[in-house]
Amino acid sequence: MIINLNGRIDSNNAAQVENDITEQLSGRDGAPVEIDASGLEYISSAGLRVLLRVRKTHPDMRITGVNSEVWEILDMTGFTEMMEVEKAYRVVSIEGCEEIGRGANGTIYRIDRDNVVKVYNNADALSDIQHEREVAKLALILGIPTAISYDVVRVGESYGSVFELLNARSFSKILANEPERMDWCVKEYVDLLRKIHATVVPEGKLPDMKETALSWARFVRDYIPAEAGDKLLSLVEAIPHDDHMIHGDYHTKNVELQNDEVLLIDMDTLSVGHPIFELASMFNAFIGFSEYDHDNILRFQGFDFETGSAFWHKSLEAYLGTSCETKIREVEDKARIIGYTRMIRRTVMRGETETEEGREKIKMWTEELLGLLKKTDTLLFSRNELELEAVKENLDEVQLFVGERIEEADCPPKAQMQIAVAVEEIFINIASYAYAPDKGKATVRVEVSENPVTVTITFVDHGVPYDPLAKEDPDVTLPAEQREIGGLGIFMTKKIMDDVTYAYRDGQNILMLKKNL
Amino acid sequence: MLNIKKTVENGKAAFALEGRLDTVTAPDLEKEIMGSIDGVNELALDFAGLDYISSAGLRVLLATQKIMNGRGGMTVSNVTGSIMDIFEVTGFSEILTIVQAE
């Protein structure tokens, strides 16, 4: 039963409208009622009271086709929470619009200078849109720079969500047109990736990527020899639960430069999980999907296979904080195991085994996968970043972490102790002063580079701005009686490191130690 | 971790240290020294088993040295190379009486 409302409803005509409705509904108790408000321009409280009375006799009443002015009234008065109210969707055409991004669930077009629309692949996309809006909001609240859609629109037979994206260019575009900015892109891309992976997500807010990966592994197990299949599954099962955020589709079309700000878009795959899952999807985006046909990446990203491979390798190097080729390859191989598993399943699911190309791809990936499974015993890898509460009690954990990271640098004992001393002085400094009298977190990052071998340790905290290097050095030539107790820690750090720098950026104290070995 | 072996006899106190002297362990050493320093004229610190020292440890050494300057004296022995390096950088090699074994 559909009841049409038109024009304005206020105290002048509310009684008349109520009579009309009652007449239409008489003898139809219990029938579902839809109020079609597409012709409604305004409704006052007198009109709202009429709706409430109708709802009393027809509790499942829905209101549809609500324009944005009427929506505001219904939203302000709490009606949108009390009953099912459906907005009238603005119709947007994407004819002649530039495609700027493409993800698993939709395609993004620029509709004018300031706005883009993400058009969802499936016609019944309203729940997907709702999901993406919610996770984008969550990400924003947790400190990840992203765009949130402000409107849902109708695009042909499908739905789309509209975002404001001014003067934005994707990293893919930058890589394709300005190859000289590759290193800059790598740095920004990895900084944002680190930020995502350092973000703890409250329990139950995002899906667990491990569950998804387990389903891929279970699927692929049936397509490879039993022994290899069992190993694949046990490798994925052994990955511990991780409540840190992962994007799930982190390639360069989903990272945008807007003015000077780097923004993450296409949030529908946002999950929690171990970073190996992220690296797997990155490997696929830059290498895996194009390994069979190198032109694939050109079609998808706008840059060639060599550029994609170089970008992936440099990003992995920066992310792991090591230029040790063996270590980089080791982690890449772990990522490839999950990457190939996903691609084999995807190709089978899409029915591509019917084609010669599909069968060849699966054969190639399966061979690679079997080779990798033979030589891999864990999918875990060590990260070069540790976030923890900045309290004295955590000093041992920091030292252990730094010690493990610099092991590969073949550090002589003297330098080992000098690094440990500098690490202690800086960490204790943060623990004592950055958040006092409250507590807060600190991040410690260790990077080892080769030729020449240099260890770089970066401390980041969000406490009060404080430059410990600005303090005057103590006079170390004085006899004991004239010496002050204290002030030695920072002085020593400056002396025994090759470079110590301090910066305050984006609300963060950033202290960097460098030691050449 | 810091192990402290202490012997006090006839106004002479000896402390043999083993492990790390850092922010976490320095208060333990300070407590041990201050708790047994009454009537002590000579204090000997054996660093043979010590493999790490930070400014927190230096602070305890300085405070103890200041007290012992007014008495018989204080020695630090068997200092390893890495710790000696820290003493030199901070001028502690001048302040402390360092006795190296043959």
What does this structure look like?
The complex is a heterodimer of chains A (517) and B (102). With 517 residues, chain A is of the alpha+beta class. Chain A has 4 domains: 2-88, Transcription Regulator spoIIAA (2-Layer Sandwich), CATH 3.30.750.24; 98-166, Phosphorylase Kinase, domain 1, CATH 3.30.200; 174-375, Alpha-Beta Complex (Aminoglycoside 3'-phosphotransferase, Chain: A, domain 2); 385-516, Heat Shock Protein 90, CATH 3.30.565.10. In chain A, helix 7 packs across helix 12 and helix 8 runs antiparallel to helix 9. Chain A is built from 17 helices and 20 strands. Chain A has helices at 14-25, 45-57, 68-76, 79-82, 126-141, 171-177, 182-197, 209-221, 226-237, 275-286, 295-301, 305-320, 325-349, 356-375, 395-406, 413-434, 488-496; strands spanning 2-9, 34-43, 62-66, 84-87, 90-91, 98-102, 106-110, 115-120, 151-155, 158-164, 168-170, 245-246, 255-258, 261-264, 271-272, 385-389, 441-449, 454-461, 499-505, 508-516. A 6-stranded mixed β-sheet of chain A has the order 5-9-10-8-7-6. Chain A has a 5-stranded antiparallel β-sheet with strand order 16-17-18-20-19. A 4-stranded parallel β-sheet of chain A has the order 1-2-3-4. Chain B is α/β, with parallel strands linked by helices and 102 residues long. Chain B has one domain (2-99): Transcription Regulator spoIIAA (2-Layer Sandwich). Chain B contains 4 helices and 5 strands, in the order ββαβαβααβ. Chain B has helices spanning 26-36, 55-69, 81-89, 92-95; strands at 2-9, 12-21, 42-53, 73-77, 97-99. In chain B, strands 1-2-3-4-5 form a 5-stranded mixed β-sheet. In chain B, helix 1 packs parallel to helix 2 (55-69). The N and C termini of chain B lie far apart (28 Å). The model of chain B has no long low-confidence stretch (mean pLDDT 93). The chains are: A alpha+beta (517), B alpha/beta (102). The interface between A and B is medium-sized, with 29 and 26 residues.
